[in-house]
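Appendix B, Record 12. Input sequence as logged:
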Amino acid sequence: MDPGSSLVVIIVSLFVPPVGVLFISGCSADFLINLGLTLLGYLPGLLHALYLEYVYYSRREDAANGMPNTERAPGVYSDIIQRGGFDSICLTSSRPPSRERGRDGAPEI
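Logged structural output:
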């Protein structure tokens, strides 16, 4: 993971929290919630944005280390944030890879 990109997102969130959330979740329910919280007050929007970014980057780091977190984080509605930006929550398989079989059905070596 590039620490520079996460730093840019956090700095943007300090000034305009919904834009930081937009960077990590796209136009999702979390973005709309953050936009509403920011319109109600800067501090609620900022705290919500920093929480979403914490969940996103911690899940991203866990998945990159081969230990994806499958529990849903409370208050996070976007699957992109829940998975840390990965397409699939299961990045590694616990099953050994299957062997290729030849025409006669015997495994090829």
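The helical segments are 3-15, 17-25, 29-40, 42-64, 79-82.
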